[in-house]
Amino acid sequence: MIVSFLGTGTSTGVPVVGCRCNVCTSDDPRNKRLRQSAKIEANSKFFLIDTTPDLRMQLLRDPIPRLDFILFTHSHSDHLMGLDDIRPFNFRQREAIHGFANAQTAKAIRRVFSYIWADTQPGGGKPQLELHEVDGAFRPGGLEVVPLPVCHGDWTILGYRIGPFAYITDTNGIPDSTIALLRGVDTLALDGLRPSPPHPTHFTIGEAVDAAQKIGARMTYLIHLTHDIDHATCEATLPPSVRLAYDGLRLEFE
Question: E strands, 21-163, where?
Answer without folding.
Answer: 37-42, 45-49, 69-71, 97-101, 129-133, 146-152, 155-162
